[in-house]
Each structure stands twice: as C-alpha cells, then as structure tokens.
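Help! Submission page says 'invalid entity' but I think these are all valid:
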Amino acid sequence: MPELPEVETVRRGLLPVLEGKCIESAVQNRLDLRWPLPERFAERLTGRRVEQLSRRAKYLLAYLDANETMLIHLGMSGRLLVSTVGRERDSGAELHHAAKRDRSGAGKHDHVVLEIEGGARVVFNDARRFGAMDLWPSDSLHTHPLLARLGPEPLSNAFSAEHLTASLEGKRSAIKSALLDQRIVAGLGNIYVCEALFGAKISPERASGSLSPQEVTALTAEIRGVLEAAIEAGGSSLRDFHGASGELGYFQHSFRVYGREGQGCARDACDGVVERLVQSARSSFYCSRCQR
DNA sequence: CGGGACTCCTGCCAGC
DNA sequence: TGCTGGCAGGAGTCCC
C-alpha cells in the first residue's frame, strides 16, 4: 500500500532521526525478507553514518559512508517505526500503525532493528514480508536490478506528456496496467492509478495506445496532482503527529474512487456510481459514467 | 518481446 | 464463538 507519497512521507519523517547520524548498532532477526538480506547485513550497517536519506520511486535510499547505500522497499505492509530509547517503547514517533507487541516489547514482525546516534531506534517491521532491504555500492547504484529499469520520477521534469505518449504508443494493454508498470512511470500503485484515471476521466480499461493527446496531457497532470496532494496531506499529518497515539494520517486519505464501490461518483455534476472491476488480479475502482 | 497468470506472505473480515 | 476461505497487493518470474 505504501506508494510514492507514503514513502516520501516516511522519508521526511525519518530525516531528522537518520540524516548525518551514525548507526550505532544493527540487529537482524532473520536472514531474508522478500529476498535474502545481503551477507552480514547487520554487521555491515553497524558503525556506518547515514550521509543522505533519499528516495527513488517507492524505494528509500540511505546513502552511507564507505560507498554503500541501503535500499529499503516497504512492500505491502512494511513500516519503519521510530521510538526513543530510554522512554517507554511505544512513546516515540511511529511512522505508520502501532505495531503489535509481545510481552517483551518486541514486535512480532520486527525484522531489522537499528540503534541510531542520538537515542532513536528505527525498526523495520513487515508482517507480509513483501518488503526488501539491500546494500549496494553507492557509486553504481543505478545498476541495482531493482532500480535499473525504473521509469522517470512522476514529479520530475523527465515525466511529461511526451514521455507518456511515447511509452503508451502502440500498446494494446489497458491503461491501468500500463500505469502500474514501473518502467513507464515509477512510484504509482493501485490506489493512485485509480485516482489519476478518475481525475483524467479515463476508463481503466482503455487501450493504452488509444488515448488522445488531450487525454495523455490530462493524465500526466492528474498523476502529478494526486501525488503532490497526497504528499502534502502526508506532510501535514507528520507535522500534527506527536507520537502518543502512534499513527500517521496518510492511510486515512479520503480517496475519490478507490475503495468506494457502490457509492456515488465524487463529481457533483455526475450521478454515476463507483464500480469495481478486476484487472490483472487487482481491483480497479472507477465511474463508468464520467470515465470513458 | 508483450502481456497475462501466477507467486510470495500474513492480517483481517465476512460468512457459516 | 470459532473456524475457514477469500481478499489485499508490489513486483519478479514464468509461460504462451
């Protein structure tokens, strides 16, 4: 569920905790997440300084000293929990839901635990283990197999109507599937694809190559718009967050179509009803009246 | 090569 | 109340 805006919100929340700080100790509680963790993962993290915390698509990139970069992908259920050592375990800021704790205070799915200079503890917790962590030489990060084929960042100048037109040209697959393809544009997931198609009034079933220039332009703008609005909302939930109840607001976004099957279309001028269909084993929510 | 189906995993919820 | 089955989905892999 974490898509680009959620990952960006997590990054911003972690910045003051991690950037410029040393990882004083690292513990890994298993050898693999979705894939095997790199050899001696925890050992290689210990003593490293986080020089910069960056993001590419849905990947968090912690540039460390000694020319290593830690990649983090949250998958479906991954979260980075921040607490302050010396206080009660859950009293610190927590980036996402409160995690379930056993009696020892350790979370059931706490897979990697980092103690950070300054007293913060950062925990990678991931129930479904669709997430991933890796280490890769910083100076050849672009060759990492998970990063090498990613398309442009949707909020960068590289993502344009021209790029999208060229990427969709001649494609017969549904536009919904094309927008989920990270090689075309990187960082969108099921939710924001549904939202952007709604905003652009384009049916998720349309053949990718059949979009008019006007539709591609509208879609490009909508993709930017929904992501920027979600980051803004995440940012405000971060500012309002003081840690006691332990939950960020970004999974409480109110979406215009996603998850709204059977409800009236969010457009005042439209009296359609949101429908759900399954495309490539994934739910698409849309209004068949105004999305054509 | 494009594109669809399948796979991983566990929490949650509807239904009985 | 407790069990069961289905569903959620990012992204790689497999196969046609």
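Support: the input was valid. A stray whitespace character was the problem, and the output above is from the cleaned input. Residues 1-3, 34-35, 58, 73-77, 128, 130-132, 145-146, 180, 182, 189-190, 281-283 of chain A lie near DNA strand C (CB under 10 Å from a C1').
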